[in-house]
């Protein structure tokens, strides 16, 4: 086990080279401590298991109501994502 080097309560911005990673807490949703990462310079949202495509949401330690609130928070906090990176989804070939 490795202890965290950084903790936060609601949100934190991490600078990685030229990029800003906006990390914010949206849980409980899928679990009790869900976070998402927004990269505004690339318009990419890393939503993990908060957003699933083609499957029924699974809330092991979270809740359906919490999941809905988490999605609403993502929609309210993130403007115009060009890409969304999800946790689980039904495998499909990429179309370009």
**Helix percent band:** 10-25%
Described by strand count, sense and barrel closure, the largest sheet is: 5 strands, mixed
Structural class determined from secondary elements: alpha+beta
* CATH level 4 superfamily: Ribonuclease Z/Hydroxyacylglutathione hydrolase-like
Reading off the top of the CATH hierarchy, the class is best stated as: Alpha Beta
Mean pLDDT: 82
Fold-level CATH name: Metallo-beta-lactamase, Chain A
| Rg over alpha carbons | 14 Å
Shape: globular
Tally of distinct domains: 1
From the N-terminal CA to the C-terminal CA, the straight-line distance is 41 Å
Strand content: 25-35%
Uncertain runs: none
Give the strand order of the largest sheet, numbering strands 1, 2, ... along the chain. Answer: 1-2-3-4-5
**How many distinct helices?**
1
What CATH architecture label applies?
4-Layer Sandwich
């Amino acid at each position: 086990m490795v202890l965290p080097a950084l903790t936060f309560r609601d949100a934190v911005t991490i600078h990685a080279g030229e990029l800003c990673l906006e990390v914010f807490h949206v849980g409980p949703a899928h679990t009790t401590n869900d976070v998402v990462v927004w990269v505004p310079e690339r318009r990419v949202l890393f939503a993990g298991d908060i957003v699933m495509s083609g499957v029924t949401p699974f809330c092991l330690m979270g809740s359906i109501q919490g999941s809905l609130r988490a999605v609403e928070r993502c929609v309210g906090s993130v403007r115009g994502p060009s890409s969304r990176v999800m946790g689980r989804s039904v495998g499909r070939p990429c179309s370009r």
